[in-house]
Amino acid sequence: MPDTPLRSRRNLAASLRTMRAGTGLSGNQFAARLGWLQSRVSKLETGKQFPTENDIRAWGEAASAPPDALRDLLGQLERARVEYATHGENYRTAGNAAANQARYRELYESSAQITKFLPLMIPSEIQTAEYARELLRLPSGPPLWEATEDEIDAMLTARMQRQQILYDPGRQTKLLILEAALRVRLVSPEAMTGQLDRMLALAGGLPSLELGIVPSTVRLPVYPHSGFAIFDDSMVIVELIGGEHQDNDPAAVARYVRCFGLLHEVAVYGHEARHLIRRALDELGGEISAN
């Protein structure tokens, strides 16, 4: 199974730290040799900042690293930039359903800003337990892998724990969906009603959360092929049918940052977002009454 983004990032950070330690210099001394701030060295060594190829080369030069050691670092950088992990592979590993969710929690906790766009689904950051449970019961990815109830329980517990980041004033979460996500029938009407109620309470109600909805009446400025999440503008995770595509390449991340920005400009927030949610709730109530 391929490394997760966190594992690759940690491995690369550890290699940088080991190489610096091999010089006998402290972080401050090594930063001075590089002409950098000490905080930048610290962030690279702890994986909180992803290095560029130029960073790696400068690091190797400052450490007087031999060519083979520099090549190894560059290889680690390349492997960490683009990785692919399928849902089936991740969750079928013993105990990995919860472990995979826990790794995401670690990624979220190490990021100061999380930016996510989903076209037809409510983001996990604000899902109710009922919505999430019914969603996790749906077949996922080829060959339409289905989780067991024990796996669902483990994933759900970890997902709910991860939502605590919404109440951290030192972290900003920006979520964006298409209005269609308020109506698409992925879960039961009862679960969707509870989900929309929660969104009403959250829209504009938390200073650390920005919830935007792109109205179905506006013309989209880009074609949103799939959902994606951006972490500190340094890594993007793209959600695909077969799994997740994880990319740390600065040029690739910049494209998704721009895509989110364009969608952000045509979205509505606060009172206008709550209006769209209430309208979807009213329609759903009428549907439930009719049945």
What is the secondary structure topology, with strand pairs?
Elements: H1 5-21, H2 27-34, H3 38-46, H4 53-62, H5 67-81, E1 82-85, H6 87-92, H7 96-109, E2 113-118, H8 129-136, H9 149-162, E3 172-178, H10 189-202, E4 209-214, E5 228-231, E6 235-240, E7 243-247, H11 250-266, H12 270-290
Parallel strand pairs: 2-3, 3-4
Antiparallel strand pairs: 1-7, 2-5, 5-6, 6-7
List keywords for this structure.
alpha/beta; 2 domains; 7-stranded mixed beta sheet; single chain; 291 residues; 7 strands; disordered N terminus; Endonuclease, Chain A; 434 Repressor (Amino-terminal Domain)
Short description:
The protein is α/β, with parallel strands linked by helices and 291 residues long. It is built from twelve helices and seven strands.
Describe the 3D structure.
- This protein is α/β, with parallel strands linked by helices and 291 residues long.
- It has 2 domains: 77 residues, 434 Repressor (Amino-terminal Domain); 205 residues, Endonuclease, Chain A.
- The protein is built from 12 helices and 7 strands.
- It has a 7-stranded mixed sheet.
- A hairpin with a 2-residue loop joins strand 6 and strand 7.
